[in-house]
């Protein structure tokens, strides 16, 4: 059964620029999909059209059969609870503590004034503690967000998104500002959490090697259109050239193989959804 369906989605800005054109995708439950493509291909726009941070110009987005593109006001806010967003720039409030930032993931449930006075239900606070322990930040609960490293800030963003108890994770460049080792750790954490919670995820990511390693399915965008949709193993040099343009992809692969990652690449095996699953 598909959790998310995108039908003929398009986005044209007032300038006349076409950011997306006729995007058609379906995501089964529990699938982790990577969006790859050059800068300006429309990856971030697609993610933001799904949760209506950007208004599509045409087409439909359906979440569990519910059309998101026609929703307004309270109905849209309620639907957004079902989608957790993890931002490239983390979107944390620097003057707040780690715990306070994570608890802000419940804003859609507790209301503005309860959040202002930090009056969250006990169950939410307990779950926030559990999530912070799971992402490796139990020791930093009372730290201000501006005292954290980039990897720690991303972990706070992950915990905050999960506190919404979402069905779908939308993840925008989770490793953009991180070093290679931390990038692998963050992608591994996201992957494990999706498997533990049965979450569907769309990850906009520039690092093709990380997409291959940690995602079930890869969708390549070029100039706002889908030019590849398939398994990680099918992403060969010819396909990468179609997505990104001319490049010595064999040399790139050799460089990636020489990375100092002590961990072996995870094995792939077929899942019931028909896409390979990553095992670690």
UniProtKB/TrEMBL annotation:
Q: Which Pfam families match?
A: ABC_tran
Query: What SMART domains does the database record attribute to this sequence?
Result: AAA
Xref: PROSITE patterns = ABC_TRANSPORTER_1, ABC_TRANSPORTER_2
Q: Where in the cell is it found?
A: Cell inner membrane
SUPFAM superfamilies of this UniProt entry? P-loop containing nucleoside triphosphate hydrolases (SSF52540)
Gene Ontology terms, cellular component aspect? plasma membrane
Q: Does the keyword S-adenosyl-L-methionine apply?
A: no
Q: Which domain of life is it from?
A: Bacteria
What is the topology of this protein in the membrane according to its UniProt annotation? Answer: Peripheral membrane protein
Can you name this protein? Phosphonate transport system ATP-binding protein
